[in-house]
Amino acid sequence: MNNFTSVPMFFLTGFSDVQEIQILHAVLFLLIYLAAVLGNVLIITLTSKDHWLHIPMYFFLKNLSFLDLCLISITVPKSIANSLAHLNIISFLGCVSQVFFFILSATTEVSLLTVMSYDRYVAICHPLRYEVLMSHGACVQMAASSWVSGVLNAILHTASTFSIPVCGSPEVHQFFCDVPQLLSLACSYNTVELVVIGLSLVLDFGCFVFIDISYIHIFSTILRIPSREGRSRAFSTCLPHLTVVTLFLFSGVFAYLRPLPESPSPLDLLVSVFCTMVPPIMNPVIYSLRNKGMKMALKKLLKSRHCPSN
Asked: Structural domain tally of the chain?
């Protein structure tokens, strides 16, 4: 029986021990990672450079893109490097860093999505008070609160997860240091971590209820709009956020609110891949396909590249 701090490194089982499959995994992960980085960096660039996008909705979108960039960068590059080196290990400090920053990014994203639902609520239900309620100072405070909640939750989870003794081989049946897998290495139940998980679930459920209430008011207001064009325009401003919330929350629920199987299975890896990689790569696509502001900003950026004199 050893403490977590006495374990010099952890072994990540990954996807396969076959060299060819490891190389294929590295190539696929690299392509997905590059696509996610390109999409999120593009959104950050557009929302920063185009002054027409300097409004609350795009301010929060820029924060969301940065979080998605962090979320996928925490786990995927290390997994790619391990596959190419045919050495699936991670140091103790590397494992702690993955747990801390993964929880920080995920928690902050849940809080930010909740704030974004409030932004849509104010924009549609109280348009005359929008500039007052969603001033720049208020937006900064809401975004900062989301980040603070993420940091506090990450500190609690990381400290409680690595405060218990380990039994047996420090082998993590994942491609990154995932909290449920780390807890399965413990010699006994980690009561402190279970309490922290319970508090996190309560806060996540509170965010989910807040988002639901916001959209009940939003949809009731949209249905009272007399013109069909007005209803369509109002709904189109909510559709990307609603899609992102559904994708992120349901992937998280499916990955972490189900019993951990006694023996590892390929399904666990696929679920983790979906949870950690699909939202960061899909969110830029979702927010770009139906967003006229983003399309116009991209056209202006491309035009300025071709015609720098203008």
From this structure: 1
